[in-house]
Design a protein that fits this description.
Blueprint (H helix, E strand, L loop, with lengths): L2 E7 L2 E6 L4 E4 L14 H23 L3 E13 L7 E13 L3 H15 L1 H6 L5 E9 L5 E8 L2
Parallel strand pairs: 5-6
Antiparallel strand pairs: 1-2, 2-3, 4-5, 6-7
Helix pairs in contact: 1-2
């Protein structure tokens, strides 16, 4: 895989990779940027969420779970001193559907983090990553019916 960033001005860049898509990168005004793009470290968190989300939703669909909404959030703690690396993270999987099986959610998360997600595989060697899940019953107002951690 190849990736690159192209500088435009100040701290404004455009990133691209083999897929051909582009992503804007920028920095806060306080450090000389124009506040016009993702911070690189934000993209790291988004990459973690996106990688495991794609695995989990694919597996849940193969398990014939009736999913109506799905999101994955990542909360990352950072060191207070430079280079302000991630020191810990929590991934929260929010699954909404009809009669979603908790065991299917747990197994899907397990397969993602133990076998398929290369971003998780790289990052969990550097800092601890906790996985949580919330299962909601679909409806006009989705209702939380189960929550837990993987592994328990």
């Amino acid at each position: 895989m190849d990736a690159k960033v192209v500088w435009h001005q100040d701290l404004t860049f455009t990133g691209s990779a083999d897929s051909g898509f582009t992503v804007p990168l920028g920095a806060d005004v306080a450090v000389g940027g124009a506040d016009d793009g993702f911070r690189p470290v934000e993209l790291l968190a988004i990459s973690l969420a996106g990688c495991t989300a794609m695995d989990v939703i694919s597996i849940l669909r193969k398990k014939q779970q009736e999913i109506t909404a799905f999101e994955v959030g990542v909360h990352a703690e950072r060191a207070s001193d430079h280079p302000k690396v991630f020191t810990a993270a929590v991934i929260t999987y929010r699954v909404t559907g009809n009669n979603v099986d908790e065991a299917a959610v747990q197994r899907s998360i397990a397969l993602s983090i133990e076998k398929y997600c290369p971003v998780y595989a790289m990052l969990h060697r550097v800092f601890p990553i906790e996985c949580r899940y919330e299962i909601y019953q679909a409806g006009e107002t989705p209702r939380l019916i189960k929550q837990g951690r993987y592994p328990d």
